Structures are given as C-alpha cells and as structure tokens.
Automatic annotation (TrEMBL):
Residues 46-235 form the KANL3/Tex30 alpha/beta hydrolase-like domain. It comes from the Eukaryota. SUPFAM superfamilies: alpha/beta-Hydrolases (SSF53474). The gene is tex30. This is Testis expressed 30. It holds the Pfam family Abhydrolase_11. InterPro entries: AB_hydrolase_fold (IPR029058), KANL3/Tex30_Abhydrolase (IPR046879), NSL3/Tex30 (IPR026555).
Amino acid sequence: MHPVNIQRRNSLGMDKFDEDRVKVPFGTKHLDAAVCVPASVNGVDTAVLLTHGAGGDMNFRHLVSLAHALASSGIICVRFTCKGLNLVYRVKAYRAVWDYVKSLERFTVKHILLGGRSLGSRAAAALARQLRAETEDAVQGLICLSFPLHPPGQTHSHQQRSEDLRVLPEQMPVLFVSGTEDNMCDRVLFDGVVNEMKAQIDVFWLKGGSHGLTVKGRSEDSVLDEVNAQIITWITKHRLSNFM
C-alpha cells in the first residue's frame, strides 16, 4: 500500500487521515481501491465500503468527500472502482472487496456497512442480501445513495429493482439518501417499496436534489456537507444501539 497523509480543512478545523491506494484481488484481475483511515486507529472497528454508479469511478467527488468525512469521524472507508454495468458482475466485485477488508491485519474490523451510489447501491443491497443469508452478522448496515428505483420514465421496472431491498431482514439498518427531484426514484413508488420492506429504514430526502444529489442554487460543498452529516449521524446512532 502507498499511504498518503491528507489534511482537509472544514468548519471544525483541520482533519487528518491516511489514504492508501491498493489493488484488491478479483479472480485473475485486480480492482482499484482506496482505503481511508482515521489518523488515530485506536478503537477503530467499523468500516464502510462504497462504490460508484454506472459512470465514473471511485474518485467521484461525492464518494471522496464522504470517505474523508467518515475517516475524520473515526470510521474506515474503502471505496473501489468496478466499471462493469452487469449487476451480477458488480456484486462479485463487491464481494471481493468485502473479503479483502475482512482479511486486513492492521485493524480489527468488527462491523462492516455496505454502501454505494446509484447502480452501486443496487450492488450493495444485493451483496447485503447474499451475505446475511450466509451469516446473520456479516453486514451491520446498508447505505443507498440515490437508489435507482427505475430508469427515467420507466417506472414499471421498480418491482424488479427493489427485490433485494424487500427481502432484507428486519435486523438490517438501511439508510436511503435521495433527492426530491430524482427522476430515477418516483416518490410514491419508493414509499410503496419502503412499506413492503422488513428492515429498519431511515430516509433522508435532499430538498431539490437531483439523481446526482446536486441542488440548483446551492454550492456542491454545502450539499456534500449536509449529506455527509446525515450519514455520519445515522451510523453513530446505530453503532450505539446495534453494534455493542
């Protein structure tokens, strides 16, 4: 690994964390990944895994911002790139990253949450379902950023796309972060899916937010700070109530 010490200034002062670029074994290939680690690793036992949507890669600004915010809050964040658009392939890649994190010897990772943006959140949900079927405590939470319930204007596909969500167990905490103007998440249909789910669900609607979680008239930084704060507050709540 190649550690890079990063300093990021925010309204609270200067945060420090290390970001290591790694190659995660994936069959005969490797996945590019970044491991973002709190400056002090004492007591660090929680990791969040993140991946991107159909376009872009692990350097998508929203993922980088969230990774740095998580590490500044004492949580390991591993984000990775998987260019494949096939969901089954994406889930296999995600599983490889999960295996990699479980094998890390530098930390004692006891709690892992899966997350992703758009297509990445579908892959995270599918893997969460798969892992919980194998081991009840394999995954402690799921974070879905702009879950793509359907393609724009094609709401008929929402049942198929939400299948993994609807069968998640009742012990699974799930956070949805979506924009109120997301053209891939009809709110009425989404509310119907949530009502059918057994999991412990929290939803944060970003007012005026698009599928890309951008808001007209607001700076990108202000939106990112708001979204990151919501996610960290949610994780902290569940760490205190469920992870002990």
